[in-house]
Structures are given as structure tokens and as C-alpha cells.
Design a protein that fits this description.
Layout (H helix, E strand, L loop, with lengths): L23 H6 L8 E10 L14 E7 L2 E6 L2 E8 L5 E3 L9 E6 L5 E5 L8 E7 L5 E10 L7 E9 L2 E8 L15 E8 L2 E9 L11 E6 L5 E7 L4 E8 L8 E10 L13 E8 L2 E6 L6 H6 L2 E7 L2
């Protein structure tokens, strides 16, 4: 299987942080579940409005992020203009498009410089998810429906990751809700759809189940990075739970099907001193290196603490 396109843009950090004062027993259990997660440390963050010069866009409702060729590419569901941000978070530019609602819920990069954006449902009258192909210059190349439909508008695919196997392009699409259903679906039923393009339609090749221990209230995005043994480390993030899970994605030599395995490692985004969630609208994640993640946040509906972190790009690493 060909390697996933991703550059190591920041120094690697240990994914086994020391826990001061921890006993061997507690260290063994740390990160093994949502009830005993590890922490994430903020490295840097910046409001997207300070990175882009287009003042006609009042808000940057970030919905996805991917790393490619040494930069971050951010999709927002309220504009068709994809943002390009350097990893120092000092400079940003916007690609072609306008301020109309794109409904882009995720973005992923290919190994040859192109991008795919996911639209979770086409419209109120058409419940099919749609994939938009973008060129290396971020211009729209084509659009194609998937064979997956959802019962509720804006409750469809929320994340997407590209990879290639046996000379075929695949997209792994992450359902927003457990079991790809309703907001009140029981946690522990995370689902991925393996899609490939067949006669102009992204057709489901298989449905992958996340381990039941990944009991997030919803799912916001996923990201992949390839390991030396040919497997992938899979990152899955939730904005309602404000947490991150790292597991393993493995594939047979043919690339025809994948399996997601655990137990993996659980992390939570930084909380306030009283335990209140601060990162309430995390919508996108991508790898910048081993144990280094770029994350983007949507517009928040909630407390002042949530608004402080909204519409931003953040860099995190495991708490040391």
C-alpha cells in the first residue's frame, strides 16, 4: 500500500508522557479509557480571522483540516474558500471561491497534491452525501455523490481521510452520529464507510466499526498517518466529548478492506480549572508528526470559555 501523503512538520513528541507520582498500576491504565484519559498540551493557537485578509467573511466556521506539502489546509462550511496556513500559524491565504455556504464538513489531501472535501448531505431534498474534488490550487475539479444517504440534514459524514491501496483511491468517511443515525443513538457505535469511485459514484465497499470503548457522544473528524509496519495510526476526535482517540487501522495486501482495532489511547483537550470543557467546537484534526496534532474549531454555541477557543487553529501534543 502506498504511503499516505503527510509531512512531518514539527518535532516528534513522546506518546508516553510521564505521570509524576503515578504508581506502576495507574500508569498502565492511563489513557486506556475515557474515564482515565491522558491530557493534551497546547503548543500554539491562533484565531483564523487574524490569518486571513478577506474581511467579507465574518466568521470562519472551520469544519476540517489536513496537512499537505508543509502547510495546513482548512475547510469551513460557510465558505467555499479553503484556507492555507503555515504551520507556525503566522500566515494564511485563501483559495478561490466565495463566502457562500459550502457545507464542507471535512477535507483530506491525496499523495499527488489534490484534495477532497466532504459534503455531509447534498440538500434538504437530497439526503445523499457528496464528495468535491479540488485541484492543488484549491479550485473545484468535480463533484460526485456517494451511495450513502442520511435521515437528517446536517447529520451525515463529518470526517474524511484519503488513502490508496492496490492502485485504487479510497476515502474513509466518518459518520457524525453513532451507528450513522440520530443524535440520541447510544455511544460506542462509531462507524466508518470505506468508499471508492465507481462509474462516477463513491460506492461503499465496507463499513468499519470503531471499538465500543470509543464511547464518544458524536464524531467530528479523523486522520491517518502510516506506520513503519504498513498499518496506520487512526485519530478520531469528538467535539461534544472534547476528546481524541488513537487506534490502529490495518489493511490486507490487496487494500480491499480495513479493520480498526484498539484498545488505543484516549486523550482529552484541556479543561478549565473546575473541569469545564473549553474546547467545545473541535471539528477537524490532522497529524503534523508523531504525537503532534493540528486541530481546528468551529463557531461555538456556549460559554465564554468556549468562545475564547472558537474559530481557531490549534497545535496540541500529549501532556508531558
Amino acid at each position: 500500500m502506498a504511503a499516505l501523503a503527510a509531512s512531518v512538520l514539527l518535532p516528534a513528541c513522546s506518546d508516553k508522557p510521564d505521570e509524576p507520582g503515578a504508581t506502576p498500576e495507574s500508569s498502565a491504565k492511563a489513557g486506556s479509557s475515557l474515564t482515565l484519559p491522558l491530557g493534551l498540551e497546547l503548543v500554539a493557537e491562533r484565531k483564523m480571522a487574524k490569518l486571513f485578509s478577506d474581511k467579507t467573511i465574518a466568521h470562519y466556521e472551520a469544519s476540517g483540516v489536513t496537512a499537505s506539502s508543509g502547510a495546513l489546509y482548512v475547510a469551513s462550511d460557510n465558505t467555499t474558500r479553503i484556507g492555507r496556513i503555515d504551520t507556525s500559524l503566522d500566515d494564511g491565504t485563501l483559495g478561490p471561491g466565495d463566502g457562500s455556504d459550502s457545507q464542507y464538513e471535512a477535507i483530506t489531501a491525496t499523495d499527488d497534491g489534490r484534495f477532497y472535501a466532504m459534503i455531509e448531505t447534498a440538500s434538504a431534498d437530497d439526503p445523499r452525501a457528496k464528495v468535491v474534488e479540488l485541484s492543488s490550487s484549491l479550485a473545484i475539479v468535480s463533484e460526485a455523490f456517494t451511495d450513502v444517504s442520511f435521515k437528517h440534514v446536517n447529520k451525515g459524514f463529518e470526517g474524511v481521510a484519503w488513502l490508496r491501496g492496490a492502485e485504487t483511491e479510497y476515502l474513509l468517511a466518518l459518520c457524525e452520529n453513532n451507528d450513522c443515525k440520530d443524535d440520541d443513538s447510544a455511544p460506542g457505535q462509531g462507524r466508518l464507510k470505506q468508499l471508492s469511485l465507481v462509474n462516477g459514484v463513491w460506492v461503499t465497499q465496507s463499513t468499519l466499526k470503531l471499538p465500543s470503548t470509543v464511547a464518544f457522544l458524536n464524531f467530528s473528524d479523523l486522520a491517518l498517518t502510516q506506520n513503519a509496519n504498513g498499518t496506520f495510526t487512526l485519530a478520531v476526535v469528538s467535539h461534544k466529548t472534547s476528546a481524541l482517540w488513537l487506534g490502529t487501522l490495518s489493511a490486507p495486501a490487496s487494500g480491499a478492506a480495513w479493520a480498526v482495532t484498539g484498545p488505543g489511547t484516549f486523550y482529552v483537550f484541556p479543561r478549565a480549572d473546575d473541569g469545564t470543557i473549553r474546547y467545545c467546537s473541535v471539528e477537524g484534526i490532522t497529524f503534523l508528526g508523531p504525537g503532534v496534532f493540528a486541530v481546528v474549531s468551529d463557531k461555538a454555541d456556549g460559554s465564554t470559555a468556549c468562545r475564547d477557543e472558537e474559530e481557531s487553529v490549534h497545535i496540541f501534543q500529549p501532556l508531558r
